[in-house]
Design brief:
The structure is a homodimer. The first copy, chain A, is mainly α. The first copy, chain A, is 67% helix and 0% strand. Chain A has helices at 26-29, 34-59, 66-78, 84-94, 99-120, 140-159, 169-183, 188-197, 203-229, 233-255, 261-277, 287-298. In chain A, helix 9 (203-229) packs antiparallel against helix 10.
């Protein structure tokens, strides 16, 4: 993996106040054995995911009213993870920011996803494409209400992450708008509408639904990380597109039951487009986030 | 009504840059016939409601994707109105702010309420207390998704109301937190949980549910109006409590089918408590908002 990515390596210009044990050093990794580099990248993602989970566990303790917070706690952690929160943090670090700056946004992204996941699996009478069976720990009414409670909690976490010492109010407000659009009627909700009306065998349809659902969430995650970490407007837009392709690949992997040739071709095309977005991020260490695309495609 | 409220009238200290045709003048209304004062108050509320509706109609045009925005438009305007948005604007004006400063928050409050109303009437298999029959213009799936789309749109409207010229980013962020709490797991959602588990014949239960549902939404509306209009912390808290009682009275009126003696007594008590909160708002013209409590009780 490290060899395949060697043409993306540039000298890192990030000035870290203290050594970051999770961030692979681009200047030395090309000389290490491939297995070491892979282990380093994997531990980088694992450390981000562990930090986001720890942050969420502190943010959602099981407190009174228990009847409300116990299902909330359960459904937030029962939802399958996406790469959007980790991408948000990795991109923030990539553009020179600190992990803590993107933690609330990353947590909010998982909260939004878990609310959507909960509602998406509610047993409704008119779902034309029944979702795969999932275990329902609660009745539909509680799951509906819990999803409705998780969403505003995500925005509360975000709005409360404003720190006068960092003067980040404008960035946080911009991130709130980014997230409302990604999960709203022109983003994830649009994808869910399309899903209601389509047929899964059509590859164009799968690509389009994945673009609106997983694509927009990951695009948003990457853009938010870049905004919060202080990236340039050009970097924000390139990383947003990279995130879009990462999310679409993730979405396609979720849909593909077997190895459909057409979807594999879409996956290959998206991978090339994703890597293209990382080409001109001069002086940024893109290795950690480019591994997302490689790892995804290993499974197609 | 004007006579009953005359002890609340003080000389208005509000400095308006231009005459406000909607705001009753406290210095002259006590000398006018009661009918004129009532008509003036009614037209004040009607003008606020018309302004909020016009703002929402501009904010939610029926645009592409029509399959998404048409149900959104319909369900936002089909939801019965609450007084929370109008209270938000009236309080903003009461503490010396302009109507435009509270317009996004007032619109967001109606959006949050309409999302909750839509979800509250979804036909789920495990609702122990069936809601009164409502007309469903769409299937459950579309109504679920539309509610999920309305909520982030409300936060988007709010976050985008930041105006560098007004330097209002901190106030808007505070209002976002206020609204997330009012509609979230310790506010409206908590009330809906209680509603699932309770029995309507118990008056304590009715009062508690109304406190968490309509109470918190109106308390939030009043507090947001005071924050955005530049009220003092003391004014914000007094007006928040006033809003709480206004909302609880509205909630109780929604529950009462006949004239239940116990609920009438609760209504009377809340009315006294609401008016008490307006007593020490020195120099503020409280007549418009105090009429909310009087008007509510006329129907009990």
């Amino acid at each position: 993996m490290a060899r395949a990515l060697s043409h993306f390596h540039g000298k890192s210009t990030l000035s870290l106040s203290k050594p970051n044990p999770y961030r692979p050093s681009s200047s030395s990794s090309t000389f290490r054995p491939m297995m070491v580099a892979m282990a380093q990248t994997i531990s980088y993602w694992a450390s981000i995911e562990a930090d986001v989970e720890a942050h969420l566990k502190t943010a959602i303790p099981i407190r009174r009213p228990v009847a409300v917070f116990e299902p909330m706690h359960h459904l937030v952690f029962a939802a399958p993870k996406t790469k959007a929160p980790a991408l948000c943090i990795a991109v923030c670090e990539l553009v020179g920011g600190d992990r803590a700056q993107a933690m609330a946004a990353a947590s909010a992204l998982h909260l939004m996803h878990s609310a959507a996941h909960t509602h998406e699996h509610l047993p409704l009478t008119d779902r034309p494409n029944p979702k795969p069976m999932v275990h329902h720990a609660y009745g539909p009414n509680i799951e509906l209400l819990t999803g409705d409670g998780i969403l505003p909690f995500g925005f509360e976490l975000l709005a409360r992450s404003v720190d006068p010492g960092q003067d980040n109010a404008k960035r946080v407000l911009r991130v709130i708008v980014e997230i409302t659009r990604a999960i709203g009627s022109q983003g994830m909700i649009h994808g869910q509408y399309q899903e209601l009306q389509g047929v899964q065998s059509n590859e164009w349809w799968v690509e389009n639904v994945c673009k609106k659902k997983e694509g927009e969430l990951h695009a948003c995650g990457a853009a938010c990380g870049a905004i919060l970490g202080g990236g340039s407007e050009e970097e924000i837009e390139k990383l947003r597109k990279f995130g879009l392709y990462v999310g679409m690949i993730e979405g396609i992997l979720n849909v593909v039951a077997g190895n459909k040739k057409g979807l594999m071709e879409i996956g290959d095309r998206l991978r090339v487009m994703a890597m293209k977005e990382l080409e001109n991020l001069n002086g940024r260490n893109v290795e950690p986030i480019s591994s997302l695309v490689e790892a995804s495609l290993c499974n197609v």
